[in-house]
Amino acid sequence: MSEEAKREFAAALEALLRQAGSPSFQELHLLAKARGSWLPRSTASDAIRGKRLPPVNIVNQFVASCHEAAVNAGMIVDEDDYSLWRWQARWQEAQMRCLAGRRPERPEPVLAEAAVPSPAPVVQRRWVPGRDSTYLLIGVSTFQVPGYAQIPLETWGFREVIEQVAPWLQVRHLHDPTQLDIEEAMHQAASSTRGVLFVHLAGHALLDEREQLHFLASDSDPERFPSRSAVAVTGLLNRLHAQSHAQAIVLIVDTCFAGQAIPEMPVDGHAFVLAASGPFELASSGPISLTAVLARHLAAGDASTSMQLMSMEDLAAAVTREMKHDDYRQSPIWASTGEAGEICFGLNAAAGASTRPSHPAP
After folding, report:
1. Where do the domains of the chain lie?
2. Residue 315 region, left (φ>0) first, then alpha (ψ -120 to 50), else beta?
3. Cα separations (Å) of 25 from 14, 62, 69, 262?
């Protein structure tokens, strides 16, 4: 099935190339270069050979260059044939077929492997968010676009866990919101939060031709993608940072290609990003998603430390260790600025914490 998926995808790219008037690989390269993007001739050639599935960023540049070549040649262009939205959905389907049979649907948690007693207590600073902190949880599983797959989300279970381990947070949960709902909720949270602002996105995301990441809302439309039909995630931290009076911002992105949220972090202040996957990597949904793994670690706690609170760095390191196993389709990545890594995500159940410590100054 894996080889067949590669061949079929390569054949579809080759057919698109012919449809665009069979531009040379050199022409595709120059068109991408003029856009400020990267598509070497050899890479474009490899994309239609079917030996391997090309990375999604290469697919984007190949399709965008074919579209531009067809327009430049004065050909009649059906925009649907060159839709980055549809090509990424096709790529995701091919990638899933390549991965099929290699990993179980629900691996056994490996939390026990991390449960090694610490040789000695470690004195660490912890930044406990106050009651003026907000957790904005946004999950989109159902889409109005016909034929776009519904995805299983773990946001309802995650909300229950976060309300138990971090009762001081003001949690707001949006399920299947529209783009306007998301934009308004982010603006309201950014303007009203004075403590720590958490923004957690779970669902589908796509890349545009400049490889910028966009989170899909329930009413996202491929005909208007990306500018008027999705929420820009690349650069989101900078926008929130500019709008908000929050002491710190934490962004959790549980989507495909989530690593594209990291490059444009604020250069000053306190910010933390936890991404479910690399910049051009698929992410899993359901019980092996980043949201589900986070919920399990928060509920179980970390027995390897006597600390009563789990920091963002502690939690990110724990989920990354678990999800690097072959049972998962992605490896989460994370980055922080300032002291955001010491922001506490919740009480450490394994350490027997039962009370909320005082809030140290950031």
Report:
1. 2-99, 122-351
2. alpha
3. 12, 9, 11, 31
The partner residues of 275 in beta bridges, in order of sequence, read: 253, 333
Nearest to 251 by CA among 271, 232, 270: 271
Which CATH fold would you assign to the domain 122-351?
Answer: Rossmann fold (3.40.50)
Residue 255 per-residue DSSP state: S
Q: What is the CA radius of gyration of the chain?
A: 22
* Cβ proximity of 23 and 65 under 8 Å: yes
> 192: buried, middle or exposed (CB in 10 Å: 19+, 13-18, 0-12)?
middle
Digit-coded pLDDT (tens) for 308-334: 888 899 889 888 888 876 566 678 999
- List the one residue out of 147, 38, 3, 37 whose CA is nearest residue 86: 147
Quick: pLDDT tens for 222-248: 878 877 789 999 989 989 988 898 999
Task: Supply φ then ψ for residue 244, to 5 degrees.
Answer: -105, 155
